[in-house]
Design goal:
The chain contains 13 helices and 2 strands; from the N terminus they run H-H-H-H-H-H-E-E-H-H-H-H-H-H-H. It is mainly α and about 350 residues long.
């Protein structure tokens, strides 16, 4: 033969086709969330035009910032086919640690508070990740336990005390309300975290391996992926972001006690699921999780404006979760059919 032609195997074509289909379905899913968000804002604005005032937009951004940061960390964990129920408790203990730091050392720099908060979150995430990765205990069980452990430590430490805004530096409290070109500083934190997390998941091998683990943990292990180490790092990342969220929580609200972040883990999981991250792992993105967080926050602000009983907020969120799970299933079946069709044509 005078030349060689490289022919792509049907299996390789199948993998490429599957990845392309998955990407298209993910984009469609996230566009659907964005359209639902726009529709909700339009309907609410028609009824009450001031809903889109500068102050209202600022309040929406501030309201969704902490939930969005927690949702980014949760999405990283859920992609690996796990879940972290302890994020609300980590936020709580970190927020109280931040307030205590400033109360004991009034001249402490804000950067130190951020570093301490992230360090506390990393330690808590390492406890979760270590138990799950080394002992191979289900994440649901481990993080349900640490949810109560971390909250119990917070209550024991606080012993009924609270840290007031007067105990915190003016510059730290100002960070919770200050804006840059009309955008709250806290929202800029969320944007920075989102861009970094999205870049790592998309561009780094370790980030892409998280999807492989979520798709099939045993196959990922057999292919040489260090599953335990990657899952451990995912929980550390979730803990670190929960720690950061705790510091921002203290900055925004000023007054902190042992109840900070109580019950927030359910809203975080809801934001991730509504945002298109499959609860069974292997698909989704942090961008969708943030859209889910913004959508849930907007629902909470829009329903009272529309004159709807607050009771229906929980019902609406529950309906969104069920719809998201049903859509995940429908998209998975559709993708499986396309892949089977592609393999049949390549055979």
């Amino acid at each position: 033969m005078t030349g060689t032609a490289q022919v792509e195997s049907p299996r390789a074509r199948g993998r490429g086709s599957g990845a392309a289909v998955a990407r298209r379905l993910l984009v469609v899913r996230e566009l659907g969330i964005a359209l639902a968000l726009v529709l909700l804002v339009v309907v609410t604005t028609v009824k009450t035009p001031r809903f889109l005032s500068a102050q209202s937009i600022k309040d929406l951004l501030l309201g969704s910032t902490i939930l969005a940061i927690l949702a980014i960390g949760q999405a990283i964990v859920v992609i690996t086919r796990n879940v972290d129920l302890s994020v609300g408790s980590i936020l709580g203990i970190t927020a109280f640690a931040t307030g205590t730091l400033f109360k004991s050392h009034p001249g402490a720099p804000i950067v130190l508070a951020l570093l301490v908060g992230v360090a506390v979150g990393v330690a808590a995430g390492a406890v979760n990740g270590g138990l799950i990765a080394s002992a191979r205990v289900p994440a649901l069980v481990v993080t349900l336990g640490t949810l109560y452990v971390f909250r119990g430590l917070d209550y024991t430490w606080a012993t009924g005390r609270q840290v007031n805004a007067a105990d915190m530096p003016h510059g730290f409290l100002t960070m919770g309300t200050k804006t840059v070109l009309g955008v709250p500083v806290l929202a800029l934190f969320a944007v920075a975290v989102l861009l970094v997390a999205g870049f790592v998941l998309r561009s780094y091998r370790s980030g892409r391996e998280l999807y492989a683990i979520g798709s099939d943990p045993e196959a990922a292990r057999l292919s040489g992926i260090p599953v335990g180490r990657r899952v451990f790092c995912a929980f550390v990342a979730s803990g670190a972001l929960a720690g950061l969220a705790g510091v921002l929580y203290a900055s925004r609200f000023g007054t902190v006690d042992a109840n900070a972040g109580l019950g927030m883990e359910l809203n975080v999981v809801a934001a991730v699921v509504v945002g298109g991250v499959a609860i069974f792992g292997g698909s989704g993105s942090v961008y969708g999780a943030v859209l889910g967080a913004v959508l849930l926050t907007t629902i909470g602000s829009a329903l009272p404006v529309l004159g709807i009983n607050p009771f229906w907020q929980g019902a609406a969120v529950g309906a969104l979760i069920l719809a998201a799970i049903g859509l995940d299933r429908a998209l998975a079946v559709r993708m499986a059919r396309r892949l089977r069709g592609g393999k049949a044509r390549g055979a």
